[in-house]
Amino acid sequence: MIVEVLTGADERPEARVVAIDDLSRVALALGQVTDEEAAEVLARSGLGRLRDDGAALLDAAALRAAAEPRATAAEWAAQWDAMVERARAEGRLSEDGATIRVNVESAAGA
Predict the structure, then answer these.
(1) Looking at per-residue confidence, does 54 or 79 come out higher?
(2) Which domain of life is it from (predicted)?
(3) How far is CA 1 from the centre of its chain?
């Protein structure tokens, strides 16, 4: 699953959740947007926030709410739970389970 921040309609950055059925990883992919634009879009969408260390914190509940209604994979909810447990085991899940620390990468074509 990937949260993308890309330049959208009218050249305004927007966030979208893609690769919803691939829960083998979770990442934030930035297109040709500034860090300030990305931070503003993530905050406005409620999906998360950038950190200063090249990572981001994604809101687990908001991410699930954005993805689950569009999921088509069998057993998606169980795969989600397994992904969250992997994040916990890897130390990427906050203590309260509210946020998942993810890597920030370049979006395809950016």
Answers:
(1) 79
(2) Bacteria
(3) 7
